[in-house]
Amino acid sequence: MSLFNSLQTAVSGVSAHSTYLDVIGTNIANVNTTGYKGSTTQFATMLGAQDLSNYHMAGVHASARPGVANQGSITSTTSTTDLAISGNGFFVVKGPNGDSAMTRAGSFVPNASGTLINTAGYTLMGYSGQDGGALAPVTVPIGATSVTVAADGALSATNAAGASISLARIPLANVISPENLTAVDGNVYLANDDSGAMTVGTAKTGSLGSIESSSLESSTVDLATQLTNMIKAQQGYEENSKVMSTSSDMLSKLFDAASG
């Protein structure tokens, strides 16, 4: 391995551990974010030019992988429209641009027109009838005195006259490979070719799981683990920086000797 290769390898190590620290920082920042799935950093060796008898090391590459399939702990709340999922499913939501997305962040509240939205501004989608149909924004009538969400997603409310009325059914969705979903702002995910298409079904069927009302799913981030990883990232960064500095010094001496 030449000095130029060792310098390139060290630079890749510094870059990879910067990515590692970035992932840790994002996890720590979201330690209290409802439904957040902590990410891990995956390191992969990079090889340079190879022949039959030798190869040249070219460093390391790091990438973030969100733990989308990990279940967070469920905590109780006082709002019946706070929803958590016990299982593998996701809520179907629609963003401001009209695109369908998936989320585990179930802190839904009625807006001025009664439509349920979460803290990121995504609208909860559901079936207007109990037996399916087209997905539409889930709305609670203005003036309803109480709202009930069953484990299978059946949503009902009590009107001002004290009568119970059936409003909608909240479905759950999933994909074949949730770890490959595309994460976007607002703690939501988009299906893509690697994850497979989004399929929608009724809660309490298959592995989708059940819906728990007056509950929220906590972030899966363990703060102690992240602080330990931060130390490892710092050590890796410092040691790769030393290799980079040493390689640079040796190259300078080599050039000085050649020019002298």
Automatic annotation (TrEMBL):
InterPro entries: Flag_bb_rod_N (IPR001444), Flagellar_basal_body_rod_CS (IPR019776), Flagellar_FlgE/F/G (IPR020013), Flg_bb/hook_C_dom (IPR010930), FlgE/F/G-like (IPR037925), LlgE_F_G-like_D1 (IPR053967). Residues 84-157 form the Flagellar hook protein FlgE/F/G-like D1 domain. Residues 7-37 form the Flagellar basal body rod protein N-terminal domain. Residues 213-254 form the Flagellar basal-body/hook protein C-terminal domain. Keywords: Bacterial flagellum, Cell projection, Cilium, Flagellum. It holds the Pfam family Flg_bbr_C. GO terms for cellular component: bacterial-type flagellum basal body; bacterial-type flagellum hook; cytosol. It is found in: Bacterial flagellum basal body. One of its GO terms (biological process) is bacterial-type flagellum-dependent swarming motility. NCBIfam families: FlgEFG_subfam (TIGR03506). A flexible structure which links the flagellar filament to the drive apparatus in the basal body. Belongs to the flagella basal body rod proteins family. This is Flagellar hook protein FlgE. It comes from Lichenifustis flavocetrariae.
